[in-house]
Amino acid sequence: MSFFLGIDAGGTATKARLTAADGRVLAEASGGPANARIGGDALHAQLLTICADAATAAGLTGDDLSTVRCGMGIAGINRMGMKAEMQARTFPYGAVQFSSDAMIANLGAHLGGDGAILILGTGSVGLVKRGEDSVSIGGYGFPISDEGSGAALGLSAIRHALRALDGRTRPSPLSQAVTREFDHAIPRVIEWMDQAAPGDYARFAPLVMDYAENGDEIALSIVRDAALHVERFIETIVARGAPRCVLMGGLAQRMKPWLRQRIVAQIDEPLGDALDGALILAGLPVTTIRTRRGL
Q: What integer pLDDT is reported at residue 148 of this predicted model?
């Protein structure tokens, strides 16, 4: 018997799904961030841990692992040399395929067919796939890219909070909520900043959305600016000729109401999720996934 293991490794969390050859889900697992920014050793260790958690939950033994075909979508895998480094690492499985988190999200959203996705999570990236060709849009990494993402929202909130603390702008309920996390002390914010990763900034995104929905003036300006970036992403994707466009990621549903109706009209529903895409990358037939999903 053979098994298929899909991994979605991102800037905030890592998820795993293990299935039998007939598509039955045997186990799922989740863990912390496992993107390329944390370095090869830490990334390899996190991937091994999440894979082992899924295998243990499914009751697989050591002998079973050699029959597992694994597909891993990793945020930042396209950084210089990272994919080759991961391919050179040892994994206890029969076969391991690597791609980006954007590619597995695209494969899952369209179940292997042509189309585009825009991921709005810790970071942001668009991917258009037509046949064997794919084009990425954005996604160069925080802070130079990732417009409209959770990390970008958090960064804007932190900047506003600091300006409010030193008197350059008027405090707002959002700024006070942010600085409360640091006892309203600028040195604490700076100390945090020196160690903060994109996921740490993204932790403030739900707070920004909450205050925007309650009418906070600064939060409204942050979210509206992010929405403009998201709209430009979608317009660029559509201009590339994508037959379908799907919004994905943890921030997608909260951002959608802030988009203009003509933009929303161009967004399609996903056929599957990123873990389905990882399983497709691993070699699980699309027809098997469609059957499991009742499509």
A: 96
pLDDT score, position 131: 84
**Are the CB atoms for 182 and 192 separated by under 8 Å?**
yes
- Provide the pLDDT for residue 1: 66
pLDDT at residue number 89: 93
pLDDT of the residue at 63:
85
Question: Are the beta carbons of 219 and 172 closer than 8 angstroms?
Answer: yes
Which among 170, 76, 179, 67 is positioned nearest to 122, based on CA atoms? 76
pTM: 0.83
User: What is the number of other CB atoms lying within 10 angstroms of the CB of residue 203?
Assistant: 16
List of the chain residues with pLDDT < 50:
none
